[in-house]
Design goal:
The chain is mainly α. The protein has four helices and no strands. Helix content is about 65%, strand content about 0%. About 20% of the residues are buried.
Length: about 100
């Protein structure tokens, strides 16, 4: 890939991420505090399951279950709000949107 194509791709990702941020933040605010903490540590701060468990003082299994539950709730909130987050944010996405909010372990 040439530098110009890479720059265009980076600009598109940045614009998509910026546009999606307010709906994602609004949805996160609607989660219970513990569910929000797990998702923020795991995906915003890019912490491992183990690091998140240590930070919250719980087991790895608890982090995994709360991540799964929180992501499901977050998807429901976003779907119910009618926010169109675009193709980068669909199920199974590998983009920079809620696709990165898939539980992967």
């Amino acid at each position: 890939m040439d530098v110009q194509a890479s720059s265009k791709s980076a600009s598109r990702v940045k614009a998509t991420t910026s546009a999606a941020r307010p709906p994602l933040l609004d949805a996160l605010r609607q989660l219970p505090p513990r569910g929000r903490a797990v998702l923020v540590l795991r995906f915003w701060e890019d912490q491992s399951v183990e690091a998140t468990a240590a930070a919250l003082g719980c087991s790895v299994g608890t982090v995994k279950s709360q991540t799964s539950r929180g992501l499901g709730t977050l998807r429901t909130i976003l779907a119910d709000s009618g926010k169109d987050l675009g193709d980068d944010f669909g199920p199974g996405s590998t983009g920079t949107g809620t696709g990165y909010l898939r539980a992967e372990w």
